[in-house]
Every structure is written in structure tokens, then in C-alpha cells.
Amino acid sequence: MNPINERISVAPQIRPQDLAEIAQQGFRSVICNRPDGEGADQPVFEEIEAAAMKLGLEARYLPIVAGKVRDEDADDFGKLMEELPKPILAYCRTGTRSATLWSLSQAETLPLADILAQTKAAGYDMAGVVRRIANGGRTPTDAVEDARFDVVVVGGGAAGISVASSLLSRKSDLDIAIIDPADVHYYQPGWTMVGGGIFHASDTARTMGSLIPKGVHWIKSAVAAFEPKDNAILLDGCRVVKYGRLVVCPGLKLDWHKVEGLVDTLGKNGVTSNYRYDMAPYTWQLVQKMKEGRAVFTQPPMPIKCAGAPQKAMYLSADHWNKSGRLGKIDIQFMNAGGALFGVKDYVPALMEYIELYGADLNFFHNLIAIDGPSKKAVFEVKVPDAVPRQIDVEFDMIHVTPPQVAPDFVRVSPLADAAGWIDVDQSTLRHKTFENIWSLGDVMNAPNAKTAAAARKQAPVVAENIVSDIQGHSATAQYDGYGSCPLTVERGKIVLAEFGYGGTLLPSFPRWLVDGTRPTRTAWLLKERILPPVYWRAMLRGKEWMAKPEKVSAA
């Protein structure tokens, strides 16, 4: 028996003698979706019904011919779901027909991604009926496709716009579309500076329409599902977009709901986060107003975008309190679900000097799981290796929360995802491991690199180069070395410029005499404050690959 949710499970063919155990497990109803006589060793429904009645179970017969689930059948299944006592066990030969009926019957009640996720967890792939689910459980009557492009880019963030621009700079005759429902594009690396009182929030936003490259089609819609075997993308409303080649870079999902109570208190009661455009100014308000008490800064389990951002918020806050003479009255607690301050050891000594300067306490293996804003209390799960997990309550006057982060729902349930939900790519070429006409970059793919805008800046030319090479009938010519950059703002005016690649290899962009990335420097601060924002808006998003030319694949 394979549970889809608490209301229904599905199963392969059951026998009358199985009903006792089914009843014992708490099921109250049984639905048979397998026609009598389909198999030589199959009990007829009357036998199942008789055994069920003796045990006080409801039993219904809704036979479906294999491979022929009609819209009317899904309607009938939905009515049974409403009428019968729960939980329900539905069965057929393998359980697939029952799972399909449930999926179609719930199409107007549950989001597509939830339906796909629940059936996938139960062991059933609904890819064959995804268009019907997206169409409200009805068989689409539209044309096979609504649009077709040479290259489709899913996501209009830093990665998506950059790769589209880089493609056009190499092959200007490409017919390219970007799919993204957002009206506004954000320079997210600037939000830490907003939370530290350096940038204004409005400095980090532009309209999406002003940034889409000239000649690129903008499809202002959300993606519902991928159909890679048909080179198709299903949009909300069951519209179908076909592609010759696909680039997937929608970013990741901030899972605010994973921390109990967080959504209800975010933006008030001293609870803030620089991971949201509208919250970063509140961070600065809290920092300015705080005279004494406890300030807590959290970091969830990896992966997260910009792994240094949680501590950047702490450093800039502590620097303000230090320079305003309040630091001694403020108890700073850094609660990290991981076991290290930073993943690349070369930068840790400089960071530890600031931890000591600011008197911050490091609490490793502490993961925020719940928060009570009105009571000013946070609950952490402490999972120290080789120790029994426990929970602790921590009171706060201000808390900066970094939310747990996952791949977007429509990615996690797709055929493109690995077991953890991320797009499964070759870490060098960024080409999908299974589907040869699909590439991915940015936060959503599973290469073991830092999820930063700086990484996307290096990845975009690699993907563009390899797609053009593929169009011309050649193998990959460019490779990505895992480069990522994290400008760690340790104080206002100084930054530790962490630049590294796969395996923690240091990959500095500048000579050491100009910028020693392992030490805090004024030069790195000027780079972050003055140079990188215009580089982002005027170069990266326009396909001008300043210091981002792709490395060629070696002949060996």
C-alpha cells in the first residue's frame, strides 16, 4: 500500500484475505479500479466486497480499462473521494490507474506540483497525464503546441537574462524566449547592503521588461511542468511551448513555511530577513533602534544562495553597534545548522578576528525550526554529531532569519531533477546528464558550487558557448570551474573577498598586491559598493562578459 496522503493510498491488486490487515491499518473504504477478468489470477470484485462488508469497510467498483482513463472516470472517482469514509485504499493491477484517477480528480483542488510530488513519493509517475492535470483534469482539445523557439530559457533572473544575452552575442539569428511571470527583476546581492544601511532598496530593482534583451521574446507566465521527451514546456493554463534547446535557471525557492510560525511574524516583533526585498529595510530599522538585548542570526542547512549572507548581516549590524558605542550591551548569537563558519578554510582566520572583535557566540549544528514572534522566542534543533538530538528555546530582541531553501516545486517533481530535487547536470559543461538538449545554470542546478550571482556570471558564457557549439554540430567547447564569489562585508568599508571554485580551490580575480582576498580590504569594499552593481546591470545582463570569458575544454 502506497500512501499518497492521509486521505488515500493506492495499491496493486489485493486479495480477499488482505482485507483484515487493510482494516487493521485504519482504512475505512476500498475502491476497485480493475475490471473483473483482466487477469487469470485475479479475484472478482464481489469477493473483495464480501470480505470488506464483513469487516465494516465500504467497497466500490469503478473499473477502468488500462490506458483509457476518461475525463468522466476521473469525475466519478472524485465523487467517491467526497462520499466515502476516509482513509481510502484504491487499487488496480499496479496502482497506476488509481493514482491517475486521483491525480485527475484533484486537478482543480490542488496545485499541479503538489499532485506530482505526492504521486511521485508514492512511486507513481504522472508525466503521461501532466497536461490533463494542468488543464483541470480534462483532456486538452488545443493544438499540440502554442509556440516554438530555437532556445527557451526558463527564468528571468541573473542567470536567465545573462545567458540569453550571451547567446545572442554569439549567434544573433537565434529565436529565443524567456519564460518568467515576474514584473520586477532584483539585484539580490545588494540586499545585504540594504540591511546594513548602505543601499536603498529601490537601487536593487528594475522592471523586467527593461532588461529582456532586444529581440528576445518574453513569455510572462509560470511554468507548470516539463515534458523533455517531447521537447515541450507546459505553462499555467495548459499552454505548450516547444523548444530546440532548453536552459533551466528559475533560481530556488525560499521555504519560509518550513520554519513554524515564521510567516506569521516576519516583518514585525523584531523578526527580519535580508533574503526579501521588502524585509531588508526592516533589518536596518531594527539595527538602528537596538540599544541592548540579544540579536540572533540564523543559517539553515545547505544549500542556500550566498552562503555568506547570514553572517554578512551579523557583521554589518555588529559594526554599527560597535561604532555607536552599544556593542557591549548587545548579546550576538550566530546559530548555524552546519559545522563551520565558512566552507573554504582559507577565509576563516580573517572572519574569526571579527567574530572575536564583535564578541559574537558561534553555535554550530543549531537549526531554526520554529519561532514565536510575540513571545520573542525561537526554537532550535541541535544535532551535534554523535549526540542525541535535542531542542532548545532561545529568547531574542531581534532575529535575522535565513530561510531554508529548496528547488522550485515544478523543478523538484520534474524528470529533470536529481533525487534531491535539483537539475541534474554535468558540473563542467552544465549540460543535463540525461537530456542532451537541456542545460542549466544558477541556483537551481546541482553542481557543487556556491549559489551566487558571481557564479551565474561565469556560468552564462559557458552555457551559451556550449549551446552554440551544439547547434553547429560540435561537442562542448567550454567548461565551468566552479567559480563563485562571496564578498564578506565584515565591517562598513572593508570586505573579505572570497573567490573559489570546486573543492575550495582559490580562484582570485585580481593580483594579491591589489586585493588579498583572505584579508579584509578597502579595495574589495569599493568593488562591492561602486563597481559590481553597474557591472551587473550594464555588462552581465547585456552579454558583455567582463572577466567572465569561458575556459576552453582541454584537448585531452
Automatic annotation (TrEMBL):
Keyword vocabulary terms for this entry: Transferase
One annotated GO molecular function: transferase activity
Superkingdom to which the source organism belongs: Bacteria
Keyword Transferase attached: yes
Residue ranges of domain Beta-lactamase hydrolase-like protein phosphatase-like in the record: 4-108
Protein's name in the database: TIGR01244 family sulfur transferase
Organism, as annotated: Roseibium porphyridii
Lineage: Bacteria, Pseudomonadati, Pseudomonadota, Alphaproteobacteria, Hyphomicrobiales
